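Progress note, sequence design subtask.
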């Protein structure tokens, strides 16, 4: 065999380091598939064209791990198909077999997993669900797995890593470990969050290789600390390509509705990172106040005889917080700050982010929703009843400043006429301003072509298809903006009748979740131009 798959390749998608008794069995299947591919030059070339030679071994391990998941009932695949069914009424996107076996391998599972892996790895090309190459490779893989279905052994250890006992719910570090196993050490999220977290951590490690300001031990200790902090951050903030779920959502689905911690994970907060003023302590708690928003938080002390993380030594701390079981808890290592350090950091370029970190709290969400509804009505008043305007790119700031002035006057009861804008219809650099009713003003540059509405002088049928696909697959355009475009332009965009576009539109919500991840949700977006 030219390029054997080794045990370390297989263990990359496992939540443990030392091999289990069944691992060599599944590794054997991986290498049989690899050998079969190498004996079929066409299929081997096709797979390399789709994902590159670098990922061939990982892809094979990924597919065989799905097979192992079903045999061992570790619950990852089951969580996905049942969550998808609750959202869309079918077990899988696009693929709708007449008979689907929830606890067995299905050809359609392999079709979808191949599609998912390929499109997660590919940065430039989108491959449709109906792509012939995906079918050919998937059918080849299914034939190999199907012949082992009756005899494959259960990995009795695997499921333990994707479960948590009710009694462990009081241990935030055990809860975090469980979540890390899902997003960093599972096959299902390897092409997505697992790979992304690994790559970001490799950058941190590389940076510390060239840090000459610290001795070797200090360098290593700091590197481990930052890798740990980065992993926690990404796991607890990022959403997956699959269904745009956060790790807390997947934890709930994997455990199931009858598990005592199911609702605890659904109610778990996002990770909050920020600078807090230290305001004292009691026997069980610390009392802190978020510097940017003034939000007062009572934080549970860590148990187990650890020395206090916070005290009067520093007036401010940089802290990572999570709300779990209705109590705020500290994750990681708080960093003490002097007053001038805290205020310099708070007033920096990330101030708008700092002010939004608690926007998920119910009391804040209601206030933001009410304010957005009010501002939306004012925008319509200002913009001749339209929620969107198309204009030269260099006029965007001027338009927004004028709107802000109009809105302030409107709220003060001053009746003013909206300013007339006479834009250059032949401008080459153009953009749009859209008032998204769910979170505020949205600006997109160079994507006006697919908006076939009367007040868009930059509609361009020639470039509309590329621009619309870019809006769909990017993280700079909201779901609401894309829906506005489709609702108002669909009849005037003939390319939407192509088979690939029918496929995209037929699975539009799933695909927007896949491409936009956490930015699928309005509350995860910042209002760039607050009023």
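Output:
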């Amino acid at each position: 065999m030219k390029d054997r798959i080794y045990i370390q390749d297989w263990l990359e998608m496992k939540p443990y380091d030392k091999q289990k008794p069944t691992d060599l069995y599944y590794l054997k299947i991986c290498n049989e598939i690899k050998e079969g591919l190498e004996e079929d030059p066409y299929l081997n070339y096709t797979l390399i064209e789709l994902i590159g030679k670098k990922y061939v071994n990982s892809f094979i391990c990924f597919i065989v791990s799905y097979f192992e998941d079903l045999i061992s009932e570790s619950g990852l695949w089951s969580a996905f198909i049942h969550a998808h069914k609750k959202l869309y009424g079918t077990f899988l996107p696009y693929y709708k077999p007449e008979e689907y076996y929830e606890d067995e391998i299905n050809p359609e599972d392999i079709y979808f997993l191949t599609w998912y892996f390929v499109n997660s790895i590919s940065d430039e090309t989108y491959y449709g669900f109906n792509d012939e190459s995906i079918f050919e490779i998937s059918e080849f893989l299914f034939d190999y797995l199907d012949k082992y279905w009756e005899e494959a052994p259960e990995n009795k250890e695997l499921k333990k890593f994707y479960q948590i006992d009710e009694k462990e719910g009081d241990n935030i570090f055990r809860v975090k470990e469980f979540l890390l196993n899902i997003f960093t050490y599972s096959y299902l999220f390897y092409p997505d969050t697992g790979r992304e977290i690994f790559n970001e951590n490799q950058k941190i490690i590389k940076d510390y290789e060239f840090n000459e300001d610290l001795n070797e031990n200090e360098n290593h200790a700091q590197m481990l600390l930052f890798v740990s902090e980065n992993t926690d951050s990404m796991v607890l903030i990022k959403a997956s390509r699959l269904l745009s779920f956060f790790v807390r959502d997947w934890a709930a689905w994997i455990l199931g509705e009858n598990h005592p911690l199911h609702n605890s994970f659904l109610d778990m907060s996002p990770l909050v990172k920020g600078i807090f003023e230290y305001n004292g302590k009691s026997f069980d708690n610390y009392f802190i106040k978020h510097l940017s928003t003034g939000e007062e938080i009572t934080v549970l002390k860590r148990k187990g005889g650890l020395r206090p993380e916070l005290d009067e030594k520093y007036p401010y701390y940089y802290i990572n917080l999570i709300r779990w079981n209705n109590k705020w808890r500290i994750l990681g290592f708080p960093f003490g700050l002097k007053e001038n350090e805290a205020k310099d950091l708070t007033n920096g370029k990330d101030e708008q982010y700092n002010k939004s970190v608690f926007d998920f709290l119910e009391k804040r969400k209601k206030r933001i929703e009410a304010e957005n509804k009010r501002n939306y009505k004012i925008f319509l008043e200002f913009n001749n009843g339209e929620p969107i305007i198309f204009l030269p790119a260099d006029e965007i700031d001027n338009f927004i400043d004028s709107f802000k002035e109009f809105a302030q006057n409107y709220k003060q009861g001053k009746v003013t006429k909206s300013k007339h804008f006479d834009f250059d219809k032949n401008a080459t650099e153009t953009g749009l301003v859209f008032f998204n009713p769910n979170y505020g003003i949205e600006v997109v540059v160079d994507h006006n072509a697919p908006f076939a509405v009367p007040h868009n002088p930059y509609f361009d049928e020639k470039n509309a298809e590329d621009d619309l696909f870019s809006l769909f697959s990017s993280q700079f355009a909201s779901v609401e903006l894309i829906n506005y475009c489709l609702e108002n332009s669909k009849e005037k965009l003939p390319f939407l009748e192509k088979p690939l576009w029918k496929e995209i539109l037929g699975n539009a919500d799933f695909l927007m979740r896949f491409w936009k991840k956490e930015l699928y949700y309005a509350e995860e977006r910042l209002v760039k131009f607050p009023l």
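The two ends are 64 Å apart (CA to CA). Work on this subtask will continue into the next period as scheduled.
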